[in-house]
Amino acid sequence: MSSSVGVGLPKTHTGNGLDVNRTHKSCKRLVQKMAEGAVDDAHQTWLRSTDKATTTPVKGEIEGEIPAWLEGSLYRDGPGVLNIGDTWYHHVFDGMAVLHKFSIKDGEATYTSRILESDAYMKNSAANRIVVDEFGTRAYPDPCKTILQKFMSRFSGPSLDNMTDNCAVNVCFYGDQLFAMTETNTIRRVDPETLKTIGDKTKISDYVAVNMATAHPHVDPDGTVYNMGNSYSGGKGPTYNVIRFPPEKTLPDGKKLSSMDQASVVASIPCRWKTKPSYYHSYSLTDNYFILAEQPLGISLPKIVTNFFTGKAFMKAMRWMKETTRFRVVRRSDGQVVKTVYDAPTFFTFHSINAYEENGQIVIDLCCFDDGAVVNQIWLENILNPSETFNKAMKAVPRRFVLPLDVDGAPVDRNLVRLPGSKCKATKIRDGVIFCEPEDLATCKLEMPRINYKFNGKKYRYAFGFSPSNGLDCGILTKVDTTTKESTHWELPGFQVSEPIFVERPGATEEDDGVLLASLLNEKEEREARMVVLDAKTMKQLALATFKTAGVVTREFHGLFARSCDKVHRY
């Protein structure tokens, strides 16, 4: 399909701003605090709501020089619309998706943005209030309905097959088709040039047995996409399913099969907790294995049902369990789960950095929190008044674990790690069970990690990300050397940074030979976007592009750079 569902949709988003008198009663406390403006400038950027997209490209003013070899588009995705009419979202994950694009050519750059024209956004806009449930925000009832009508609207119960298509987390290319993604079973195709939404939503569950999927797929050099998703039904109970999406192919009769048409489940991992499958945001792979950190933040299936009828949001069904985090390892060759149990001290993670194999071991690096408190702390109200609990919950550390593979016959109570210079431990505590103790990769905090993706699943040295200084004050870009444990930083006072994207220089022979691209938010000026270009080797600024935008520019989460000359766009 090539038609856009957004035909006739206004390019501006109409909302009531911070008019407390008109705000829905359940939002008054939040809006009152926002109107008071007591929060610091850094955290204020998380509370911005897009009022108008910049659909016509604006040219950037360039300070410094963008390398001549850098040509392509930087795509970013995040929850930018925080209110619909007089109703507001309550959680950082919930706002309606806004797509951003920085186009680079001949040393110049342009910027465009567009609100994703999802079914959720269209329904909300038509009603002028939030009518579609999100992760932390329930739909607001129609004030014109009677009590009986409101009850009957809930009588049918929750449906995992009709979750939100507000794809506000990441983007991925399946061949030459660009899709916006979230953590449900639905993705939305968008035009890589205009960012307009194309056709109807794509439900992954129409092709394979998953109810939800991550927004952090992996892409092989040939364009094969791998992802992981939960399946809550089946004779064996809930499973984590690895999904394979091969590149598009043409059959002898001329018929074309898309990646979705060829989708298949290549591995199924039984859930450790049958009624509380683990929440996970990403997973890892190596040349020969898929690895999931099954962490004790469980999604209570019974609670999903009861919360639906009691008016509570999806995330209220999540429960932190005081148990170990377990690494689930699956062979890529045959989809079989490795029988060895790899337990680790309790931790929570959103993002995998990388994983690889060395000396008969899997080395896996992640950004780790001590527990799952971060998920239940990033409510907008907490951002407005960050407590010490809030600040502590935001501190993720880059951390390494080592999983020895051949442990049959290994002695008990002896460290089995054979990684030179490593302080990691992996101790066999009984037959078939290994307890893995980590090593920190740096003294700094690190989130939104990225690498030179050519080294994805392979031995690597450098990780890039940002380092929160206090709570969600994210103004520092960071490079971590996993060999020396040293870190290098860049910041621009008065600006908040995004996840950095590494782009390799053509002809590069070293892992960090290239540039880092990141978008920046001006803490004072809402109608301005910036993009910084750093030398990835030295973390020195090469260029800074400034764009004056049509509307308020908001936070984003993830994205990728699509080089103009590449046929396969990876991360």
Number of strands: 39
Using only C-alpha atoms, the radius of gyration works out to 23 Å
Provide the residue-averaged pLDDT.
92
The number of domains is 1
Detailed description of the structure:
- The chain has 571 residues and is mostly beta strands.
- It has one domain.
- 9% of the residues lie in helices and 36% in strands.
- The protein contains 7 helices and 39 strands.
- The strands form 10 sheets. Strands 2, 34, 35, 36, 37 and 38 form a 6-stranded antiparallel β-sheet that branches.
- A hairpin with a 5-residue loop joins strand 12 (218-219) and strand 13 (225-231).
- 49% of the residues are buried.
Protein topology:
Elements: H1 28-36, H2 41-44, E1 58-59, E2 61-64, E3 72-81, E4 83-84, E5 87-88, E6 96-105, E7 108-115, H3 119-127, H4 147-155, E8 170-174, E9 177-181, E10 186-190, E11 202-203, E12 218-219, E13 225-231, E14 239-245, E15 249-250, E16 256-257, E17 264-270, E18 284-285, E19 289-294, E20 297-299, H5 301-310, E21 318-320, E22 325-331, E23 341-344, E24 348-358, E25 361-369, H6 380-384, H7 388-393, E26 397-404, E27 425-430, E28 433-437, E29 439-440, E30 447-450, E31 462-466, E32 476-481, E33 487-491, E34 495-497, E35 501-504, E36 514-522, E37 528-535, E38 540-548, E39 558-563
Parallel strand pairs: 23-28
Antiparallel strand pairs: 1-7, 2-38, 3-6, 3-39, 4-5, 6-7, 8-9, 9-10, 10-11, 12-13, 13-14, 14-17, 15-16, 18-19, 19-22, 20-21, 22-23, 24-25, 25-26, 26-29, 27-28, 30-31, 31-32, 32-33, 34-36, 35-36, 36-37, 37-38
Comma- or semicolon-separated keywords:
7 helices; globular; six-stranded mixed sheet; mainly beta; six-stranded antiparallel sheet; disordered N terminus; 36% strand
